[in-house]
Amino acid sequence: MRLISWNVNGLRAVMKKGFEDIVAEFDADVFALQETKLQAGQATLDLPQYLEFWSYAERKGYSGTAVFTKRAPLQVLHGLGSEYLDTEGRIVALEFPEFWFVDVYTPNAQNELARIGHRMEWDDAFRDFCKGLEEGVLPGDVPVERADADGMVALGPDAPKDTPRHPLGAGHMPKEVLPLTQAGETAAPKPVIMCGDFNVAHNEIDLKNPGPNRGNAGFSDEERGKFSDLLAAGFTDTFRTLHPDTTGAYSWWSYRFNARKNNAGWRIDYFLVSDGIADKVEGASIYNEVFGSDHCPVGIDIALED
C-alpha cells in the first residue's frame, strides 16, 4: 500500500493549484490531509476513486482533517474522547481489518509557547488514544461513522428524523447526528499507522537551524520530550529509521526569507507505525518537489497481509 499525508494549509487554495491532479498522480491507497481550513459544503472534490471522511473545527476557517481511502473502513472515529480537545477537528481515525489509520493535526504551541499547556495535554491524550486503539480499547463519547446493514451511515438516537443519509464515505455526516462510542467499547487489537503534522522537529537533524530555534514552538524541550514519549510507547518514526543520517530532509518551510528556495526547513510531518509492523515499511519519502502549501506531502509504502 502507498499511504500519503499532506498539510495543505487551506484546501480551497490548494484546489486552485492542481490538488486533484496531485492526488491522482500519487494514486495512493489512503491520502490524508491536515489544516483543511473549511466547513462542510465549502469544497467539492472530484475524486470518484476515493471514499471521503472529514473532521471539521467548530471555528470557521481553522484546522480540520480529512482522509480519502480507496477501500471502505470498518468504522471511523472523529476525536480523542475529550470535550476540551475535540473542538478543532484534529483527528480522523479509520479502522481497517489489519490496522488503524490515524490522521492527526497536532496543536501548535504558538509564539513564546503561549499554548504549551494545551499542547502537553493533547500529546498525552493522543498517545493514550493510539495505544488504546492498538490494544483494542475505543475512547468513549467520540462521534463514530459505521454502516448499517443497508450500507448507510448509522445515525445517533438524537438525530432529526429528516437527516439526509449517505453510504459510508459518500457524504459528510455532521458529528451531531452520529452515534457516540460507549465507555468500555472494544475492537480487535491491531497495529496503528499514524500520520500528519505533529508540529515538532524531534532532533537537531530535523531542522536547518537548531541552535537559534531551541526553545521555540516546534523545537522546545517539552514538545520534543513528548514526541520521544510517543516513540517510547511503541511506535517507529519510519523516515528516520530508513534514513538515519539523511540531512536537509524537511517537510515545512516558512513563507518568509526564501526559506523553501534555500531549504531552510523543518521536518514536522511524519508517518509513525507500531513497532510490530516497522519491518513491513518498504519505503518512506518526503515529496519536496510538490508545491501548493508551505508543507510538502510525506508518505510510506508498506506491505501488510490481510
Secondary-structure-based class equals alpha+beta
CA(first)-CA(last) distance:
12 Å
Strand order of the largest sheet: 8-5-6-7-9-13-10
Fraction of residues in H or I helices:
10-25%
Tally of DSSP β-strands: 15
Specify the biggest β-sheet. 7 strands, mixed
Number of distinct helices: 6
Shape: globular
Strand coverage percent: 15-25%
- Name the average pLDDT: 97
Question: What's the gist of this structure?
Answer:
This protein has 306 residues and is of the alpha+beta class.
Verbal overview:
The protein has helices at 11-15, 19-26, 116-135, 210-213, 221-232, 238-242, and strands at 2-7, 30-34, 51-55, 65-69, 75-77, 91-95, 100-105, 144-145, 192-197, 235-237, 252-253, 265-266, 269-274, 281-286, 298-302. With 306 residues, the chain is an alpha+beta fold. α3 runs parallel beside α5. The longest helix is centred in the middle third of the chain and has 20 residues, at 116-135.
Write the topology of this structure.
Elements: E1 2-7, H1 11-15, H2 19-26, E2 30-34, E3 51-55, E4 65-69, E5 75-77, E6 91-95, E7 100-105, H3 116-135, E8 144-145, E9 192-197, H4 210-213, H5 221-232, E10 235-237, H6 238-242, E11 252-253, E12 265-266, E13 269-274, E14 281-286, E15 298-302
Parallel strand pairs: 1-2, 7-9
Antiparallel strand pairs: 1-15, 2-4, 3-4, 5-6, 5-8, 6-7, 9-13, 10-13, 11-12, 14-15
